[in-house]
Design goal:
Order of helices and strands: HHEEHHHHHHHH
Number of strands: 2
Distance between the termini: 8 Å
CATH superfamily: Tetraspanin
Structural class: mainly alpha
Strand order of the largest sheet: 1-2
Shape: rod-shaped
Helix content: over 70%
Number of domains: 1
Length: 235
């Protein structure tokens, strides 16, 4: 016997929320793939300075996002099917998956908040090492190539504008012509690195908050629907 009245309305509301959740999973998967193949991040994070690889913390987070997006799409489909079929088993499994996902999202959010500045800090340290090596060793073509990639990708020149203005010898060798024309006004690479990663982390944070709110509503609705189905099957 199917559910009736208010519970039937909850059933379709839960279906709509699950469909939105499934779409959100697809959007997160798409955004994660975009961040993974974004030209700015790939140009910088694929760099190698001798035996030292650029920090890969950002990509680890991206791979986690890809996995989360795929799991969300699966769980969203499971919730939609369970709601339409009025299956206690599927709804119970759906609720369990949501609790696990929510716990993982909270843990990832705490980790991301604590380490929000670490990614940019690691990349800036990598840039500084390459920059110092390019200055100290004129034959270090690898270090110069790394520094030039940073400058061209981020449209910056040097660790800070003061250094850029006071070091015309290295600036003509490591900076692009367009930046040299406005050397005094060119943004520092440290600032550009902060802007690059803070902007992307801000986007991820907004998506995480929206998904968390949807998940809370879904957990409540799924439990209400599951209890209603159990009670209606008694009669």
């Amino acid at each position: 016997m199917g559910v009736e009245g208010c519970t039937k309305c909850i059933k379709y509301v839960l279906f709509v929320f699950n469909f939105i959740f499934w779409l959100a999973g697809g959007i997160i998967l798409g955004v994660a793939l975009w961040l993974r193949h974004d030209s700015q991040t790939t140009n910088i994070l694929y760099l190698q300075l001798g035996d030292k690889q650029a920090p890969n913390t950002f990509y680890i987070g991206i791979y986690i996002l890809i996995a989360v997006g795929a799991v969300m799409m699966f769980v969203g489909f499971l919730g939609c099917y369970g709601a339409i079929q009025e299956s206690q088993c599927l709804l119970g499994t759906f609720f369990t998956c949501l609790v696990i996902l929510f716990a993982c999202e909270v843990a990832a959010g705490i980790w991301g908040f604590v380490n929000r500045d670490q990614i940019a800090k690691d990349v800036k340290q990598f840039y500084d090492q390459a920059f110092q090596q390019a200055l100290m060793d004129s034959d270090s073509n690898n270090a110069k190539a790394v520094v030039k990639t940073f400058h061209e990708t981020l449209d910056c020149c040097g660790p800070d504008t003061i250094t850029g203005a006071m070091m015309p010898l290295w600036s003509h060798e490591l900076c692009t012509k367009s930046l040299l024309q406005n050397l005094g006004q060119s943004a520092s690479c440290h600032k550009k690195i902060d802007e690059l990663f803070s902007g992307k982390l801000y986007l991820i944070g907004i998506a995480a908050i929206v998904v968390a709110v949807i998940m809370i509503f879904e957990m409540i609705l799924s439990m209400v629907l599951c209890c209603s189905i159990r009670n209606s099957s008694v009669y």
